Amino acid sequence: MNNDFEYIQIQPDKALSDYVESFWCLHNRTDSNKETIGLPDGRIDLSLFESATTSFRISLLGVGTQRHDHATIPAHGLLFAVSFKLLAVEYLFHEPVADILNSGKHLPNDYWDFDSDDLKDFDRFCKKASKKIYSLLPETIDARKQKLFELIYVTNGAITVKEFSEKIGWSSRQINRYFNHQFGLSLNAFCKILRFRASLDHIAKGKLFPEMNFADQTHFIKEIKKFSGVVPKELFKNKNDRFILLSTLSSK
């Protein structure tokens, strides 16, 4: 990323990896607001945020299925976040997020015992968040669901719903009913998002041809444009770091 932004990402302990994708922070170091474009990434984000003009707040974002234009990061805005995998919704939050598909909601400012002081030290935030998540881990979970999500993430959604169903012994209809109730979209729709997200890793490296399970180059371009609004070549250029998710990948 450019010098206007600081981005840091930390991976969770292995014991939390079924539920947590990463901890990350984003800091707008400048005196002006920055307009960015958000892209679907298949995550549930719990974030702490504060800026020179915005008071401390805690938010939960649901799964995004579409490009989000004009996402503003205020001057000197600082955001610490935990990006969760979908299994966390049922077993950590105990509440569906279907109602915040493509949106989010504010949480109490003491949610999970966080407060504004937790934005002073990112490492301390990660340790505190990890400790809280450990305290919420269930003693048992549905083995079918655990295996389903393991397959979803290891394949980046690149196999069919029928194949998922056959591998875990859970009908496609039941899987989709579960997904729609908990997350607000079908498994197939979620898999397309994961495949798009995985393709961004390749595009960030200048690989503008399909490396995931796309039928051909035309299908690849169509899917990338569907989620980002632009073709892979334009996405790779990422003028002015507009696509913030791609910028974070390019900085790795």
UniProtKB/TrEMBL annotation:
The segment(s) forming the HTH araC/xylS-type domain are 131-238
Annotated coiled-coil positions are none
Gene Ontology MF terms in the entry: DNA-binding transcription factor activity; sequence-specific DNA binding
Which Pfam families does UniProt cross-reference here? DUF6597
What's the protein here called? Helix-turn-helix domain-containing protein
Record the organism. Answer: Flavobacterium sp. WC2409
What is this organism's lineage?
A: Bacteria, Pseudomonadati, Bacteroidota, Flavobacteriia, Flavobacteriales
